[in-house]
Amino acid sequence: LPELYQAVYSYVDGLLKQNISSISFTSDLWSSDVSPLSMLSLPAQWIDADFQLQKVVLHLQEFSGTHTAAALVTAFEMLQTWHIPNE
Questions:
Q1: How many angstroms separate the CA atoms of 51 and 58, rounded?
Q2: Which pLDDT score, from 0 to 100, does residue 87 have?
Q3: Is the pLDDT of residue 37 over 80?
């Protein structure tokens, strides 16, 4: 599993290092009726040089506690993994 993770990470990192003029991030926080977990995701989308839509899920993590703005701010440290400035 660590080898697969590294291969996928390297592939996505390579995609993000291409000449991307704009990138769109969305986020979703969801809970399941069949599981006591809440999950927070960070998808990204952009149009590449060949005018093809690229979509990736950059991060997915368990999110415990209340779904407040203050709690969400600390969760967005996941942007640092991909060297994305939070400005």
A1: 21
A2: 61
A3: yes
